[in-house]
Amino acid sequence: PFRVFYYGSYLPLQGVQYIVEAAKLLKDEPDIEFHIIGEGITYSSVRKSAASMGVDRLFFQAAVPYVELPAAIAQASVCLGGPFGATSKARRVIAGKTFQFLAMAKPTIVGDSPANREVFTHGEDVLMCRMADARALADAILTFKQDALLREHIAQRGYEHCQMQFSLDRQMQSLEHIVSRLL
Q1: What is the pTM of this model?
Q2: Distance of alpha carbon 13 from its chain centroid, rounded?
Q3: Quick one: which of 19, 54, 35 has its CA closest to 140?
Q4: How far apart are CA 130 and CA 68, in angstroms?
């Protein structure tokens, strides 16, 4: 199956309801399945919504210890970094999970926000989609599903970008530069 993976704590800014709606929009794609790990504030309403929509191939799993997440991420065909919600905070943050997905060389979809645009380039190291828009998210998932070369390119470029800009060595260099300027 083409596995779409997301994990989170169901904060409103994450927009998990848009992932569920995207799953419904892609219900006629028999090999796409969605795996969502986590629990939190909007969990029960999202589960009720998913049940009322009759979304098949949408699997929910309770939160798991962080040490188990790499195994779940490794099984993904595409990862959803987000945030996808409509809150003002969603436009100002970059999800930590995005860096985790990129560090594992996974093709990743993020919300098209000013924060994500500060760090990432659409079509190069991630795919971006309109936030709070299930159709845009579904279209991005289909784009990845239909184009294996694009998936590979973005996975590789995302990994390289993550290593060049956010590795521990790179962060140490940045910190050394800041400290030396202050001294």
Answers
A1: 0.94
A2: 13
A3: 19
A4: 30
For residue 84, name the pLDDT band (cuts at 50, 70, 90). Answer: very high
The strand pairing partners of 111, in sequence order, are 129
Sheet holding 108-111, edge to edge: 58-61, 32-37, 2-7, 78-80, 108-111, 127-129
**Cα atoms in the 13 Å half-sphere on the side-chain side of 173:** 8
For residue 69, the one-letter residue type is: L
Among candidate residues 122, 61, 109, the one with its CA nearest the CA of residue 83? 109
Strand, helix or coil at 15? coil
Q: What is the pLDDT of residues 107-166, one digit of tens each?
A: 999 999 999 999 999 999 999 999 999 999 999 999 999 999 999 999 999 999 999 999
Rounded Cα distance, 23 and 28, in Å: 10
> Phi and psi at residue 45, in whole multiples of 5°?
-70, -35
Which amino acid is located at 144 in the chain? F
Give the Cα separation of 20 and 34 in Å (integer). Answer: 9
Question: Helices (H) and strands (E) in the chain — how many of each?
Answer: 9, 6
- SS3 at position 83: coil
CA angle 103, 104, 105 (to 5 degrees): 90
C-alpha distances out from residue 78 to 41, 54, 151, Å: 25, 23, 8
